[in-house]
Amino acid sequence: MPKGFFHVPKAVNEPVKSYAPNSPEKAAVLAAYKKMWNETIDVPNYIGNEEIRTGNTRNMSAPHDHQHIVGTYHLAEKKHIEKAIASALEARKNWANMAWEQRAAIFLKAAELIAGPYRARINAATMIAQSKTIYQAEIDASCELIDFLRYNVEFMTQIYNDQPKSISDVWNRVEYRPLEGFVYAITPFNFTAIAANLPASAALMGNTVVWKPSDSQVFSAKIIIDVFKEAGVPDGVINVVFGDPVMITDTILAHPDFAGVHYTGSTFVFKEIWKKIGNNIHTYKTYPRIVGETGGKDFVLAHPSANVKQVVTGITRGAFEFQGQKCSAASRGYIPQSLWPAVKEQLITDVKSMKMGSPEDFGNFITAVIHEGSFDKLAKAIDQAKADSDAEIIVGGNYDKSKGYFIEPTVIVTTNPKYATMETELFGPVMTIYVYDDKKWAETLALVDGTSEYALTGAIFSQDRYAIEEATLALQNSAGNFYINDKPTGAVVGMQPFGGARASGTNDKAGSMQNLLRWVSPRTIKETFVTPEDYRYPFLGE
Ligand code: NAD
């Protein structure tokens, strides 16, 4: 038990390294990349203190060179999932009662391990098997993950500090207990930081976890596991299982001690999970917490007063970095007729200048999309746009999967504001633009708000304060992260808490105190110092 009101180190955001030519960080990450590229690793399931290899394996490969295998991982069976749950429940006995400063120390140590000795490896792993450029890997796998770990510790202490009023003879206290049971973390392929944060945030608050990473992120998940082990996360606190997501999920959601799910991924899958939890509700000992951050159809809206270069950069960076595979990536744009000729010219010039290829070549701005399923879906949407009379591809539109899953950054212009790619999340480097009549600004605001089921991120560009004010109000429910004169991507932990509503999620804001509150169940303790000894109140004296 703590014997002091300990202060944690003030959380600071990890500075983004430049990876400029001849920098030591560039040499270090390329050396790690080469080494990891030429090795093959074998990743078991991690359950309690055991590493479980089932022999039923899948290969891990590089999306930009899909025949190149960098390792294998083992698929768990139902009995292993049951074992992982049992292991989490067993570990909970000690972990839930451990003093908070011990938990804080573990995750603060994990942050510093990534900032230092693991930085090159976790970035290289993210470059190799998720095909991120070095800059995208650095802001995700290193900086965002470090920030999550540091800030969550600070947020935890802020939560613990939030205490009710007391009076002289009554002392009121609130204790932030971990949930009773275990937490299930299901993570997506696209952010190494999210993969680590979903299990770690629940564990930091005293919960034990079964974590199922995405099949397309196992390579960097292995580095996360190594970091957690070295930082001192005890066996059984975060159990890691790979394999059939439906079997794993069904097994977990059928367990009476299931206490919450921390999910990030596509909307349909989340809704299915929610439905299953509803169907099983009579099974559970406690109402499970359901936290999910899901899809997006994020917009860039330019007002006639906008600066053309800023709008174009908002689109090129917002839509095409990491091949548009960010939940926050811009994928629908609204440009006024008066600006369109200039925006179009600059956009075509900029997109044509983007180099595409392996992330090992630092000159490439675009690399491959994550897997064949994603490639085929994107190629089909591009072919459809080529065939449709209400759509025109003004730049890009080619694709090639012979070596890697390469899709050119593509801009579609449509005359139909409800065209399929204005509404459907494609999760790739495809941006669709609708050119609107300058006189129809108010109607366009309604259009932006009413198009697509999502409400994750959105950006408006304007030099006119009245227009900014009008858009901020009209679009108040259209995005959980709203940007003024900036691209809609790149939220920073501690600065822009992240999440959206409508079909984009439960909006519990990753990287904020609100998220951590979902992983505790407060207990109020009232202690009376002079306890009454007679039921008769004075008024009864009459
Ligand atoms: P995905 O839905 O394919 O997979 C997400 C996770 O769910 C993976 O671990 C996967 O194995 C698992 N899964 C798949 N089918 C399942 C099922 N039937 N039951 C249980 N689990 C299942 O998503 P993805 O391709 O990895 O990631 C991209 C999606 O994630 C996009 O829709 C993107 O918008 C979203 N995303 C949202 C945010 C956010 O903060 N809102 C952040 C990142 C990604």
Automatic annotation (TrEMBL):
It comes from Flavobacterium sangjuense. This is L-glutamate gamma-semialdehyde dehydrogenase. Gene3D superfamilies: Aldehyde Dehydrogenase, Chain A, domain 1, Aldehyde Dehydrogenase, Chain A, domain 2. GO terms for cellular component: cytoplasmic side of plasma membrane. Its EC number is 1.2.1.88. The gene is rocA. Keywords: NAD, Oxidoreductase, Proline metabolism. Coiled coil: none annotated. The keyword Lyase does not apply. It comes from the Bacteria. Pfam families: Aldedh (PF00171). PANTHER family: DELTA-1-PYRROLINE-5-CARBOXYLATE DEHYDROGENASE 1, ISOFORM A-RELATED (PTHR42862), DELTA-1-PYRROLINE-5-CARBOXYLATE DEHYDROGENASE 2, ISOFORM A-RELATED (PTHR42862:SF1). Residues 59-518 form the Aldehyde dehydrogenase domain. InterPro entries: Ald_DH/histidinol_DH, Ald_DH_C, Ald_DH_CS_CYS, Ald_DH_N, Aldehyde_DH_dom, P5CDH/ALDH4A1, Proline_metab_enzyme. One of its GO terms (biological process) is L-proline catabolic process to L-glutamate. Belongs to the aldehyde dehydrogenase family.
